[in-house]
Design goal:
Structural class of chain B: alpha+beta
Order of helices and strands of chain B: EHHHEEEEEE
Mean pLDDT of chain A: 90
Shape of chain B: elongated
Low-confidence stretches of chain A: none
Low-confidence stretches of chain B: none
Helix content of chain A: 40-55%
Oligomer: heterodimer
Distance between the termini of chain B: 12 Å
Radius of gyration of chain B: 16 Å
Shape of chain A: globular
Strand content of chain B: 25-35%
Structural class of chain A: alpha/beta
Distance between the termini of chain A: 55 Å
Mean pLDDT of chain B: 91
Radius of gyration of chain A: 19 Å
Order of helices and strands of chain A: HHHHEEHEHEHEHHH
Number of helices of chain A: 10
Largest sheet of chain A: 5 strands, mixed
Strand content of chain A: 5-15%
Helix content of chain B: 25-40%
Largest sheet of chain B: 3 strands, antiparallel
Strand order of the largest sheet of chain B: 3-2-6
Number of strands of chain B: 7
Chain lengths: 262, 120
């Protein structure tokens, strides 16, 4: 007799299985991640609308406001596809306005936070959606640092910006050379991580447009969190590449992988 | 035959379980499901899943996610394991019902080894 399980039971079994494997291998994690992040069926149509707005060369005030709402809706849909979420909120508190606060109290959540290098009981995620033509400035980045350290000190372990154009100082997708200096919001990110152990990461439109595929949310988060310490100087590689490869030619050639030549 | 050093990946396996696994994975055209593996080797269900998923990620097995619907006892279809759950809305190939949630569906794993494996 077969013992088939419903979706929730299957996820718990797979997460327990992940705990049994003594290996931190991207291919294995990707297999599991596909079951932790199952995109909301509606996210594709919202991403299409965002593509329209991001293609506008000079959006007016109303279009920017609509795109801002859209980015917040995409953030909600994204976390609606993440298994184990038991709390998803957006409100103006006695203090600041929160675009989105997400947490989980179920069995899945500790596995998820472990994959994301989150520490101890600080298991909540705070999300800011910033739909601006400009990149997110150091000043705006610093505001989220402050929220996490002053308002959400005990609960929040991960901050996440949903943006169109990223944040200042982060490696550029168009750059032809590897970034070897850090400054602006990127420097703030590194200093905040060094001081608190907490990560604040930035999704730009290239990242967001991948969120309609299983596993991508987990893969992007892991890659970006890891890069806060690695400082590779490169933008986050697409999730179409199951492994991140960044090797000089004398190493890349021997395993037959494509190289990042920057 | 591929040798898999289980101490590097699956350190819960004892010598007898490794021997039984090697015997099972030596036979041609073998198919494995987690609950069968768990019962025959005295493993927990997650441990059996861990073995099959690891072999899949190491490309030693090809695995399928079996999809069951209320309308039928046997699985109604399967998709490759590792690409997530079937996207919604999902149409049952057996009864034609269009499902907008996973409530009526259940799942299992089926692994097909690509070559004989020795667990060392």
């Amino acid at each position: 007799m077969s013992i088939h399980q419903n979706k929730a039971e299957m996820i718990i079994t797979l997460l327990k299985a992940l705990d049994e494997i003594t290996l931190d291998d991207p291919d294995t994690i990707n297999l599991f991640a596909a079951y932790l992040y199952t995109p909301d069926p509606n996210i594709g149509s919202y991403l299409d609308k965002l593509r329209h707005y991001s293609g506008l060369t000079s959006p007016n005030k109303n279009e920017l406001a609509d795109a801002g709402n859209l980015l917040e809706q995409i953030a909600v849909l994204t976390f609606n596809g993440l298994q184990g979420v038991t709390s998803i909120k957006s409100f103006r508190s006695a203090g600041p306005q929160y675009d989105l606060l997400v947490s989980g109290d179920g069995l899945e959540w500790p596995y998820f936070t472990k994959l994301l290098y989150m520490q101890g009981v600080q298991r909540d995620i705070v999300i800011e959606a910033k739909c601006t033509k400009e990149k997110v400035s150091d000043q705006i980045f610093a505001r989220l640092c402050s929220l996490m350290e002053i308002n959400l000190f005990n609960c929040a372990g991960l901050g996440l910006f949903f943006t169109l154009n990223g944040a200042t100082g982060f490696p550029d997708h168009e750059a032809t050379t590897r970034q070897k200096k850090i400054g602006d919001a990127r420097l703030r990110q590194v200093l905040f991580h060094a001081r608190t152990g907490k990560s604040i990461i930035v999704f730009d439109k290239n990242d967001i447009f991948q969120l309609d595929k299983p596993a991508t949310l987990i893969q992007l988060l892991i890659r970006k969190i890891r890069d806060i310490e690695q400082l590779s100087g490169l933008p986050t590689q697409s999730c179409d590449l199951p492994k991140e490869i960044d090797l000089p030619s004398h190493l890349g050639n021997i395993i037959g992988n494509t190289l990042d030549t920057r | 035959m591929t040798q898999l050093a289980t101490d590097n990946y699956l350190d819960f396996l004892n010598a007898l379980q490794k021997k039984k696994l090697s015997t099972k994975f030596r036979s041609a055209n073998a198919k494995f499901m987690p609950h069968e593996l768990a019962t025959s080797l005295g493993l927990t269900l997650p441990q059996a899943h861990a073995i099959l998923v690891l072999l899949t990620s190491l490309k030693l097995c090809e695995s399928r996610l079996l999809i069951y619907h209320l309308c039928s006892d046997p699985p109604v279809t399967s998709i490759p394991f590792g690409i997530g759950f079937p996207p919604l809305p999902w149409t049952c190939p057996e009864c034609g019902a269009i499902l907008n949630s996973y409530d009526e569906m259940t799942f299992d794993l089926l692994a097909l080894p690509k070559e004989p494996i020795e667990f060392t």
